[in-house]
Amino acid sequence: MLDTIPVRVRILINHEHKRYRKRSRKPAPWFEPRKTGKLTYGVTDENVADLKQQVWEDSFKPDSPIRAEFLERKGLTDNMIASQYQVDKNFKWKFNTKRTGVIAIKLGMIPQWTKEGEKVMCTVLQVLDNHVIRYTPPEDFQKSQGFHPWFSKNVGSMVVGTLSCSPLLFSKRYNNLFLEAGVAPKRKLTRFLVSPECKLAPGTKLRACHFRVDDYVDVSAKTIGHAFQGVVKRWGFKGQSATHRGGKSWRRAGATGGGRSQAGTRRGKKMAGHMGMDWNTQKGLKILRMDNKYDVIYVKGVVPGPDHCYVRVMDTVLNHRRKGLMKNPPSCPTLLEDSAQKLPSEVLSSDLFDFRDDSISISAE
């Protein structure tokens, strides 16, 4: 019989800093796209309208029988769920407190004018039908995420959805994600990292008044796609001579390798390739105007992405902008529906000029 020799194994984790940008458009190797066919359920055309109306009225409501059956199977009640998400009245805003964000739709850009007559370009964002779908506490969130050095251990995950749709458009597995929240299936879902004291119960509605005028927010979206482009358009290269050089080299990059010591093309070299369709974040955008009736937010500056695209709006992470929140903290975890109804229909920043006011006043003498 052979003698067993103990072997010690040490696993090393090497975080290598990459000098090139990793493309995010390539799907994961384990991802298998599947297309869901048309879900007819064997109904006739005459009964489609009645079926849709019945689904909207009875299937997805807080007191629907489908949700009641789901809670009974999980051993939960509405009172038990409400007790888990009670707001701490003694909570004090901290510098690293993270609230949830919202999903908005970019409508375009419109100019605004200050009281001094200066023109300011603003991006119009509309928050449509946002609801909290699920909340994961920090202890469960860390187990599902694994090892991430940039994630704090004291943050949870909150899933937010927007744009309610008919459940006939989705599969049964996807519709089951919204049973706990008691809302209709959403067309778009996203996740925000939140602090435990900023948790919200599933089914809570989020509106534009989640933020305030003169607050600073970060807006994330996918940039406009331009397909495969050359170095002149993609990176702003000057190009080469169009008259005193042989060959068609007017918009070419030129030499890509270095001298004797380099002897090759470095990683991260700016070359022709796919342009756009990458996640981009504009940080520190100021809210200048807000329409609480239609849930519209006017932010100063440009926002990535084309018109009518989904954007993520959240509290800014810039330290010099978050200092103002310590003196005047926002509503945490969010502004409740009863308080939101008492707000004026439209709120403007103190710097903007309200065109409903008189611009010039002449005294009668």
TrEMBL record:
Coiled coil: none annotated. It holds the Pfam family Ribosomal_L3. One of its GO terms (biological process) is translation. The keyword Ribosomal protein applies. One of its GO terms (cellular component) is mitochondrial large ribosomal subunit. Keywords: Ribonucleoprotein, Ribosomal protein. GO terms for molecular function: structural constituent of ribosome. Gene3D superfamilies: Translation factors. Residues 240-275 are annotated as: Disordered. Signal peptide: none annotated. PANTHER family: 50S RIBOSOMAL PROTEIN L3 (PTHR11229), LARGE RIBOSOMAL SUBUNIT PROTEIN UL3M (PTHR11229:SF8). Belongs to the universal ribosomal protein uL3 family. This is Large ribosomal subunit protein uL3m. It comes from Magallana gigas.
